Amino acid sequence: MQNVSPKKKTSSPPRQGFGLLYNPFEEFKTFQVTKTEIPLDRIVQSTEQVMDQIRLGYEKLLEEEAKELVWMVQYNTIIKAYEVAEKYIREIDYSAEDIEDFCFALENTHRIPYLIPGPAGIYISALCNYAKEEELVLKLSELKTEINLIGFRLPKGKRLKVEGDTGDFTGIGLEGGELEVEGNAKNWTGAGMRSGRILVKKNIGLHTGEWMMGGEIYVGGRVRGLGNIVEGKVYERDKLVYPGKARYPNLYY
Amino acid sequence: MEEKRLQTLIEEMWPRLKKKHLYPEIPIPKVGRVIDSFDEKSDQEDSNQRVGLEMKEKQMTINPAFIASMKDKMSEENLIEALLDHGITHYTFCPWDFQTHLMLYAEAKKVLGDKESAKRAANYFIDVIADTHCVKMRETEIPELHRNLKKGNVEKVIASLYQRIWGIDMGLTPSQFESRQNEEVVRRLARIPYLDRSRWTESIRKFARSLKPLLILEEKEKESRGGGKGDSNPQGEHNLNHYSYEEIDEGLREYAQKTMGLSEFREVVEDFSSELKEMGYGIEAGMGRGRGAPIDADILFYMKLAEHYSIPLKKIPMEEAGTLHPHSHSPWEVGSPFQDIDVWTSFGKIMPGITQVWKKREGKGRGKVEEAPDCLIIIDSSGSMINPRKSLSYAVLGAACATNAYLKNDSKVAVYNFSDAPMGGREILDYTENKNEIYRTLCRYFGGGTALDLEDMMPLIKKEKKVDLFIITDMKITNLETLIGFFGKIQNRITAVHIGENPYASRFEKAVEKKKNINIFTVKKKEDIPHIVLGSIRQYFNTMQNNHSA
Q1: Residue B137: closest CA among chain A residues belongs to which residue?
Q2: Nearest Cα to A223, choosing from A195, A188, A194?
Q3: pLDDT given at position A5
Q4: Could you give the CA distance from residue B458 to residue B441 in angstroms, rounded to a whole number?
Q5: Which of B10, B147, B283, B327 might form a disulfide with B361, Cβ 3.0–4.6 angstroms?
Q6: Residue B394: its pLDDT value, please?
Q7: In terms of Cα–Cα distance, which of A165, A76, A168, A91 is closest to A127?
Q8: Is A174 within the bounds of a domain?
Q9: CA distances to A121, A144, A149, B428, B508 from A107, in Å
Q10: What ipTM does this complex have?
Q11: Which domain holds residue A153?
Q12: Which residue does chain B place closest to A30, by CA atoms?
């Protein structure tokens, strides 16, 4: 019986015909795939880590503030939720793109199981307010959900631009920041804002500027209804609608 | 002469390249003239300088004019290696198959809304993945190639992205890349996990979203230049030419199954209609001239989806003049009966394209052989049924599966599609083997009242000696009693499928429960469809056999 040593097989070229056995995978013995470490690996890894931290903060906020997965929009619940959100966000080092990714992750149930609009909006607002960048752009036009409470307490010196529509309570309690919405905003926009500027490029809903204490709201489209405004200015298509000709709150016009 | 020299060079390089890419099943690349499909009207010489690689059904072709135009910038060997590395990676990593290509395009279209922009975004995405995979996993000259390519605005952004994610200098000067908007786009693009296949759906959306302003700008510039299809990709265009007919067929089947959405499928098919027509879809049998019929995406959807479900069909003894014997071979298709497979010529494999079945012919002598009879499909398209052209109709899908089962057993199928038949709300198709015609009749929707006209059906039943009946309805038929009475009189095998539960279906079930030639199935979800067994009436089958032997 003839034994053919592996060494002989590797040294000889591939044989034609059926005379001798040849292992076609012999070459793989010495073949090595060279995997290079590229910066993309590091970027993706750190992005994932930041996203995990942001997600964890949101889950803790829900645990503390929306135990029954029900959350009522009230003055004290908003303040409380914001304080909790601040507590977790302060520890995270993130960028504007991370906030945008989080907004999209909220719609992906595999990644974040619960999207509760109130706390989610408060949390996103806190993320914006504590971001390193002075100017933030959130490209949310492909988002299926309109985020409520976005721009809450946006401080002076910060500029937030949202591409897409926003939900109820947009820019409430604004504290001198500049909020720009490229699409529509729903009801109670700018409620309780103290100072700053809100620009809504399309239409705005009811109760606009309810208990507004100062600042300006500019609307490129139509204002569906004004709230009980204390002080401040509201413009509709460059025309001052408050203060001005008496307009009853929440009337459709 | 020049082409011969380059071909020799490729032949020398090919074993090394194959080894580098772990021996992909790709034929040796050729050298030949490459015509830019994106801009065929433009000057040929110019287009030759723009496209370096063409890929058609796994055959890669290197453009010698492109190699010549890059002679001063890169060595021939490095340039060819970079182009082939890129081409091979399309087959071995991204997009890999036609279904992935369709999925990436469909997701990009959801974000961009426009067909051309979506195609471009998907192509850029596929290229970024392929090149990044190559740079990470293999030793390649792709970065050098990108450094030397002529760049438009989007290409500059992509090059800057490469610089960031590969950590290799792409030779971009600050003046080339000073726009703040572009910088922001690159920052967003760099965060995408390109090499994570499981996240490509999510990643392409983000990619398209980030690139959207640049793609819009590019479209505007193109319009201001007076139209055309814009600059071509030097690394080769990504279109349906990449794939064989079988790959496209499989891709459409998988995509229909994955989306299960008629509108989504229709949109994609319509966007690729010109390419699909070139591949032979929507072309009716027969000769002639003209543009041909447009592809009916709805029919294609049900066709592809039905290929996923195989309904077993029980044959019955049919009187024939002689016995059948194996005569010749024909290719086996998925869903065709297994019993006729010739294992010897199929190399022991069950695989479309390899496996062969025996075609049988009638020989001399007398006897009875088992065969599948022809089938009359009675389908309800009244207002209570789902419109198959608006959303997925289980009735049409079930009928389509039954059609496939009979056609694959060499039987013919007739269709009686009814709504308010006595008032003219019906369509009748005589026994045929023409799959397109059958599907077209099945997909017809009347949306009116529900009444059968037995006078219409009788000729179809009497025409054939032994015919199976397959009725699919929700049983909300105004003259249900007439139908029950009719079914009580005939001896044909009847498969009755009702969609959902209701009192009418219960009434029908109760009325025909003693009839052994009638089998009833309920379809509540698509998974119930394979449970339908056509002509599965054991008692009836046995009786027939006993009678025959007597």
Answers
A1: A35
A2: A188
A3: 38
A4: 19
A5: B327
A6: 87
A7: A91
A8: yes
A9: 13, 8, 17, 48, 46
A10: 0.81
A11: 135-253
A12: B19
